[in-house]
Amino acid sequence: MPADDPTASPAARLAELTRRLAAVERRIDVAVERFAAVRPTLIVVSKFHPAQDVKLLAQLGIRDFGENRDQEAGAKAAELASDVAVPQDLRWHFIGQLQTNKARSVAQYAHSVHSVDRVSLVTALSRAVLGVKEATGPAGRPDLQCLIQVNLDPAATAESKGRGGALPADVLALAEQIVAAPALELRGVMAVAPLGADPEPAFAALAEISARLTATYPWATAISAGMSQDLEQAIAAGATHLRVGSDVLGPRTVLR
Ligand SMILES: *Cc1c(COP(=O)(O)O)cnc(C)c1O
């Protein structure tokens, strides 16, 4: 596997992940204390890293994992679901740009989608989750938790959306669609800080958008923000979910 030394033994990799995870948890502790914040949920972004790493992190108590490509996520989720040595309460968070034709696949394994950014995707996800529910019966999957990805690039327009996401002005209308859609649950907002810009104003803007959303939908309190580089700034701005990849798992140097 790319960034990981393929010759490393599982024990050595477990030791490395233990050390890296502890360092990230310490950073979170310090920021939570400093900003008197509520401790956010740590989602470990496992993209480009093997299912074996997810298995080791599950041994370390992690249950929330983030993926940004359906094919990779679906394969990992299926591999781990059939492994009796893996706890079966893992939650897969889909955090990448999502095409509507992947909705049916994502509905098979995802607990949440953080990258809901347009009405056509809401419709596709609702239909897909309903399909899974019908196929699996009442004990089947719960409603899919949906976060609206917001584009925080101040230069973003409907034509150039940069790193993806709905424009801030479109968030409430999209929320209304999610709330009206069967089998979906509106959870909150998500954003990636614009590349090369100070994350602080971006996360402050996200907090304001979240406040506007919860004024209408008081339960939709999730704020998914903060990655390896900017988790402190995200905690300062009230993040409820962090999405941390490389600082836990190491660099993703080679594409598969
Ligand atoms: C890859 C990714 C992350 C994790 O980024 P790191 O810098 O590795 O922590 C978080 N959010 C999204 C949307 C991603 O695609």
**Helical residues, percent:** 40-55%
Number of domains: 1
Strand order of the largest sheet: 7-6-5-4-3-2-1-8
Provide the list of bound ligands, each named once: pyridoxal-5'-phosphate
Annotated CATH architecture: Alpha-Beta Barrel
Q: Calculate Rg over CA atoms.
A: 18 Å
CATH topology: TIM Barrel
Distance between the termini: 8 Å
Largest sheet: 8 strands, parallel
CATH class bucket: Alpha Beta
Number of helices: 9
Order of helices and strands: HEHEHEHEHEHEHEHEH
Mean pLDDT, as a whole number?
A: 93
Q: Features of this protein?
A:
8 strands, alpha/beta, 9 helices, 8-stranded parallel sheet, 256 residues, TIM Barrel, globular, binds pyridoxal-5'-phosphate
Question: TL;DR of this structure?
Answer:
With 256 residues, this protein is α/β, with parallel strands linked by helices.
